[in-house]
Design a protein that fits this description.
By secondary structure, this protein is of the alpha/beta class. It has two domains: 19-133 and 170-210, 3-Layer(aba) Sandwich (Rossmann fold), CATH 3.40.50; 231-343, no CATH class. It has 14 helices and five strands. A five-stranded parallel β-sheet has the order 2-3-1-4-5, with helices on both faces. α9 (173-184) runs parallel beside α13. The protein is globular.
Length: 356
């Protein structure tokens, strides 16, 4: 017989947990680019209604990234973290509260064992959504350039970005779910696939159903956020050192460029986010094909994890290109950006003096 060490993670004996508080804790760990911001905005907007239905949002926020960071950075022990969640739930909802903790950055962590300790305090459910890897990589590239939170990624060309995809370990869904299952048990994984065919009512409503919340009467309309810049404006933004300035200042420039993109460059229609040639797409998907089949069979009882068709070969690709002449760059992007900042009252031009 195989030893326990050689067994697949999902076949190893699971530790026994007797939750101290007995409350359910839903931990929404992402991944990014699966409607997470829309979900979090919806949760925050409807926090009062959720409390009446028995759901507690820590600190009234849709996303608890700062609080979660205190756990992973060692500022809070697992026990202190759990005690704060429990105290807040008791105060705002009651002893039977279901706690909803959302932060998609959790999916990027490599030390998820830390979260397993929460099972000593709560009945933990892990919520995770999957997007097909080729589409996810294209979307993740645009996001990294647009938001520039990681200097190592925010200025890469698309080809260079694709070349470092191995560091995005969480989109190897078979391996990622294997680790989660070993820590939390298969029965505690609440999984979804980010495709229209598999989320007919959208990711927000799908998420609520995972919480057991099916009656949304009186709740606000689910939002749609995180609109993308055009490929042209993304390429211009890639050359700006916005990761060197404060987050608030970064947002000022990004918002100005977003308006320039639409009002000056005329990119008002939906822009293509396809960056891979058919050959490159096939190559990338082949890397994940076997793992995706294992996930489909184990968790969904079918052969294919993703059901949407691939982009047609004739689908136009986004053009990541800007003029090479400095005068053209100034005229097309820099000048309009400065005037937009003035219009937004972020820059103040001096009054024209009549004195000589």
């Amino acid at each position: 017989m195989l030893s326990a060490m050689k067994l697949p993670s999902w076949l190893r004996p699971q530790p026994k947990f007797a939750p101290k508080f007995g409350q359910q804790l839903f931990v929404h760990i992402g991944c990014h680019r699966t409607g997470t911001t829309s979900i979090q905005n919806y949760l925050r907007t409807n926090a009062a209604l959720l409390a009446k239905r028995g759901y507690y949002l820590p600190f009234g926020r849709g996303r608890q990234s700062a609080f979660v960071s205190r756990l992973f950075d060692g500022e809070l022990s697992v026990e202190e973290f759990a005690e704060q969640l429990h105290a807040g739930a008791l105060e705002h909802v009651g002893a039977a509260a279901k706690i909803v903790l959302s932060d998609e950055d959790i999916s990027q962590k490599t030390n998820l064992e830390l979260l397993q300790g929460l099972r000593h305090f709560f009945d933990v459910k892990i919520i995770f959504s999957m997007r097909r890897q080729d589409i996810w990589l294209e979307s993740w590239y645009f996001q990294n350039v647009k938001w520039q939170w990681n200097p190592a990624l925010s200025h890469l060309t698309w080809d260079a970005f694709l070349g470092v995809r191995e560091q995005f370990h969480w989109i190897d869904y078979a391996a990622h779910l294997g680790r989660l299952e070993a820590l939390f048990g298969r029965e505690n994984l609440l999984l979804s696939v980010f495709e229209k065919r598999q989320m007919p009512e959208g990711p927000v409503v799908g998420f609520c159903h995972q919480l057991g919340l099916t009656d949304l009467d009186g709740f606000s309309t689910p939002p749609h956020v995180n609109s993308s810049l055009s490929a042209e404006m993304t390429e211009f933004l890639r050359h700006l050192p916005l990761d060197a300035v404060e987050t608030s200042a970064r947002a000022v420039f990004r918002n100005a460029l977003d308006r320039v993109d639409r009002s000056v460059l005329g990119h008002t229609a939906k822009q293509s986010e396809r960056l891979m040639s058919p050959e490159a797409r096939s190559h990338v998907l082949e890397q994940y094909a076997a793992g995706n089949r294992r996930v489909a069979k184990r968790y969904f009882g079918r052969q294919d994890l993703f059901l949407d068709p691939l982009p047609k070969p004739e689908t136009p690709l986004a053009t990541l290109d800007i003029p090479s002449e400095s005068e053209a760059v100034v005229a097309r992007y820099v000048g309009p950006m400065l005037m937009q900042l003035v219009q937004d009252d972020k820059l103040v031009l001096p009054e024209t003096s009549t004195k000589r």
